[in-house]
Amino acid sequence: MTDEEKFAIRDNIERVRENIEKYRDRSLYDGEITLLCATKTVEPEKIAYAVNECGIKAIGENHVQELLAKYEQIKTLPCELHFIGSLQTNKVKYLTSKVKLIHSVDSVRLAAQIDKCSKKDGVITEVLLEYNSGSEENKGGILYDKFRETYEEISAFENIKVSGMMTMAPVCEKKSEYEKYFSQTYQLFVDFFKNMSDNREKTVLSMGMSDSYMQAVKCGATVVRVGSAIFGKRNYLN
Ligand SMILES: *Cc1c(COP(=O)(O)O)cnc(C)c1O
Fold first, then answer.
1. Which of 10, 103, 109, 213 meets the CB 3.0–4.6 Å disulfide criterion with 208?
2. Which of 137, 170, 165, 169 is nearest to 151 (CA)?
3. Which residues, in sequence order, are CB contacts of 188 under 8 Å at separation 6+?
4. CA–CA separation, 120 vs 55, rounded Å?
5. Cβ of residue 82 lying under 6 Å from some atom of ligand 1
6. Atom of ligand 1 at shortest distance to CA of 103?
7. How far is the CA of 227 from the centre of ligand 1 (A)?
8. Backbone phi, then psi, for 103, in 5-degree steps?
9. Ligand 1 centroid, distance to 159 Cα (angstroms)
10. Cα–Cα distance measured from residue 112 to residue 44, given in angstroms and rounded to the nearest whole number
């Protein structure tokens, strides 16, 4: 890693943090907003730099294979490791003992597998329910009409703790368009997670990526997942 690369990562993280402070709405969420680094295709050396030298406290991988390939190098870093990508049931067994939070649970079937593997590993796995805020077909996430039913069924699993929600908004041409999807997700989040009178623990609303994190924090996100705005454009070829 060159000095320029280090400088760029540090500078980018600083800028994202400044923007988060500038755009956030404390009337919706007043706690600490987690800047999670989305680290797909990013070399462990760069991830370590972001964590050790720039104070990043959470990183997220979104392919199981890639997570496993990097695992030995990233597991000792002083940060939380999350899984943020879409997840197939047959790969769940690799994750339950390794990750702090799975952001992308969108079916009872997937949750049942997480519950089963968590029992085997003797852990309780924290998950977020992924909401399909754009009602897009062919995309992951629970649809609005199914949300309550799915929430209730998944919450009943013994070895799963549902800690909040995540959404991937549709790609919008104008940044302001994101706010519609994020506001609607925030509303649902409040209905299901903020009003739980016995819930004094921190609940999580994970939304916003490089293109949309400013809109997301404006609408009450507690976690933003930022990749290319920190590490530069991804090169999937190498
Ligand atoms: C890649 C990815 C991100 C980050 O995307 P960027 O546009 O690079 O910031 C966030 N969330 C998920 C689920 C991702 O796969």
1. 213
2. 165
3. 131, 144, 147, 165
4. 34
5. no
6. 13
7. 6
8. -85, -15
9. 27
10. 32
CA distances from 60 to 25, 76, 118, 127 (A): 24, 15, 19, 13
pLDDT digits (tens, 9 = 90+) for 42-82: 999 999 999 999 999 999 999 999 999 999 999 999 999 99
CA distances 37 to 61, 113, 124, 148, Å, are 9, 27, 24, 30
Ligand 1 atom, smallest distance to 213 CA: 9
For residue 226, what are the contacts with CB-CB under 8 A and spacing of at least 6?
Answer: 16, 35, 36, 37, 38, 208, 209, 210, 213
- Please state, as a whole number, how many other Cβ atoms lie within 10 Å of the Cβ of residue 109: 9
Task: Check: CB of residue 86 under 8 Å from CB of residue 104.
Answer: yes
Read off the pLDDT of residues 170-185 as tens digits, 9 standing for 90 and up: 999 999 999 999 999 9
> Which residue type occupies 25?
D
User: What DSSP letter does each residue of 125-182 carry, written as one string?
Assistant: EEEEEEE-TT--TTS-SB-GGGHHHHHHHHHT-TTEEEEEEEE-PPP-SSGGGHHHHH
**Residue 173 structure tokens:** 């041409």
Tell me the CA–centroid distance for residue 209 and ligand 1, in Å. 6
Could you tell which of 42, 61, 84 is best to mutate to test the pocket of ligand 1, judged by most ligand atoms within 8 Å of the CB? 84
pTM of the prediction? 0.95
10 Å CB burial of residue 115 (0-12, 13-18, 19+) is buried
